[in-house]
Design a protein that fits this description.
This protein has one domain (6-95): Non-ribosomal Peptide Synthetase Peptidyl Carrier Protein, Chain A (Orthogonal Bundle). It contains 5 helices and no strands. It has helices at 6-23, 40-44, 48-62, 73-76, 79-100.
Length: 101
């Protein structure tokens, strides 16, 4: 896992999530662009159905499983939180695969 370009990977996550918010949920960024620290619910009006759809999309897009106990706002409140969560889950999955190899 040390050889992964995390900066590029995190930028990809952010870009993909922003594309999802725009194309699927119909949400446009504010004038200054997407703020990675802005609360998706407050700043961009993502409702509970949109948040659930986002979680399902994250699972599909990044090949991870979001366990029931992780389906909390802290993990998906902001773009930055989503990036951190996906990185954590991808790292765990890769470590699990390496152990099994």
């Amino acid at each position: 896992m040390d050889g992964i370009d995390w900066r590029g990977f995190l930028a990809s996550i952010r870009g993909d999530v922003c594309d999802f918010l725009t194309t699927v949920l119909g949400i446009a960024p504010s004038e200054g662009g997407w703020n990675p620290d802005a609360l998706l619910v407050e700043a961009y009006g993502v409702d509970s159905a949109g948040m659930f759809e986002l979680i399902l999309w994250v699972e599909d897009r990044f090949g991870i499983t979001v366990p029931q106990e992780d389906m909390e706002l802290d993990n998906f409140a902001t773009l930055g939180a989503i990036e951190s969560y996906v990185k954590k889950r991808v790292t765990r999955s890769a470590e699990s695969i390496q152990k099994d190899s």
